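=== Per-residue structure ===
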Amino acid sequence: SFKALEPYLDGPALSPWVNPGCERYQVCDDIAGGWFVWAFRAAVNAAGFYTSPQAASDYFGRVQGEINEACLSKKLACYQPKKSFAPRFKLAYLRAFPRAYLSGVKTLLSNDFSLRYNDRPSQGSPEEISLFEAFLYTRANPPETDVALGDQRSTKRNGTDGVKAELIKINSVGALPFYIIVQLYRYLTPVAFGGALLSLFYKYIIQRKISFISYINGLLLVTIAFRLMILTLIDISSFKGFTPLYLMPCSPLLYLFIGLGLYEGLGQRHQLTDVSSASNKRG
């Protein structure tokens, strides 16, 4: 059953799935990490096994049976069955975790999500690409010319060489207001986060009086930290975890934390000012 996927998981069709792993983990001769899940799904679709939910389920069941049989007969060297897609733990993950986690924190606080040129080809119909360009007031990369492989497109592109400078020029003009806003967020967010963090520290450690706002802020901070831990594990073991798509759920929590923290911090300042004024009057 798996043999039917060979045209879609070998040769030129493999390059769209190898390139990200080559950039991220320097594995340039095969599909790296978690990208295989998406490559496998796209290949099954391209081979025609996604015509219905039942057809897909039957195909995956056949593949599973053949793999299990090969494992039992020792034709494949296999680990014990797992309950999830989580990668197997390696000691190397512990060494890489602190630096990767700090990188995630920096990316989140600096809003370093990207206004960089991306030379990957656009996907979608000409109408969809035109709608994208009109909505974002920008120029999309040229699409590829060859047959689609599931959600990816393979081999040569339509004149990507030579358009890079033009795309940068057009995108920089069209995205100028957005760029200015991003830069403001990039420089102000770390400072505001530091102020909110100091406010929380003052409440929890110095005053030891936990208000409702500081309690909520503590939960927000734990939630953000836990999300970053999950993304760090993904980043060091499977594929790039600190992307706009995966960090986006943290953003509203982050700015809610900052807003509540600064609000409570200003309240504490007013309280200290009132106490100081009262002391001076008594004096």
In short: Strands lie at 148-149, 152-153. Residues 145-173 have pLDDT under 50 and may be disordered. Residues 55 and 61 are 10 Å apart (CA to CA). The two ends are 89 Å apart (CA to CA).
